[in-house]
Specification:
It is built from seven helices and three strands. By secondary structure, the chain is mostly helical. The longest helix is centred in the middle third of the chain and has 24 residues, at 98-121. Bound molecules: iron/sulfur cluster (SF4) (2 copies). One iron/sulfur cluster (SF4) is lined by residues 1-2, 14-15, 18-21, 26, 84-85, 87-88, 173.
């Protein structure tokens, strides 16, 4: 996840240009592993969600700043510290050049922007929600067969764009995710 300190200037710049694992695109929340972790974040003014004794850091993450840095980097959750997406691992192994890695980040962000644009047209403008929930909230509404042709066309496009984005993220960013990890968005639709 967003790495404000290194390990190298290039991986820092890759993550800064991406931020998909912090911005509510790849994950809907981060599961916190202990009360110590929760209280450390709460002392930093971070608002958590609770389910009985379990605590979660909701995404899009309130700790992500405009520059793409994590404002609680030294206190970030263990899951954030441990996470490296498939794309970053491919680049670290030398299987992808920096140019190829940046191209995939750009493609993913362009696809996210297309989905967000359609959500905006369809009246779903709550950017505090994970992209998955925003998309689901629109596509789960009943079809209005008598409705405006534009709206039905945008819904069709949203369905297709979301499926395409999910497939792209699964293939390039989440390929090596440990099945024991908290599940991300299995699908955006
Ligand atoms: S999804 Fe990967 S490349 Fe993007 S910020 Fe997270 S770790 Fe970095
Ligand atoms: S705490 Fe930091 S590393 Fe973790 S999701 Fe939020 S911005 Fe990303």
């Amino acid at each position: 996840m967003v790495n404000a300190d290194g390990p190298s200037a290039t991986s820092e710049s890759l993550c800064r240009q991406c931020t998909l694992c912090c911005s509510g695109v790849l994950f809907v929340d981060v599961h916190l592993s202990s009360p110590t972790e929760s209280s450390r974040l709460e002392k930093e003014g971070v608002e958590l969600e609770w389910d009985q004794e379990e605590s979660f850091l909701p995404q899009p993450c309130q700790c992500l700043n405009q520059q793409g840095d994590c404002r609680v980097y030294p206190q970030r959750p263990g899951m954030c510290a441990a996470f490296e997406c498939s794309l970053l691992k491919d680049w670290q192994r030398g299987d992808l050049s920096t140019y190829q890695t940046l191209s995939r980040i750009k493609e993913a962000r362009n696809q996210v922007a297309s989905v967000e644009n359609l959500l905006d047209k369809l009246g779903q403008r709550d950017a505090s929600m994970p992209l998955f929930f925003r998309t689901e909230s629109v596509l789960s509404q009943p079809w209005d067969l008598e409705g405006q042709a534009d709206v039905n066309q945008w819904r069709d496009q949203l369905f297709d764009q979301s499926a395409s984005l999910s497939e792209f993220l699964d293939r390039h960013f989440l390929r090596e995710l440990d099945p024991e990890d908290d599940p991300p968005n299995e699908s955006l639709i």
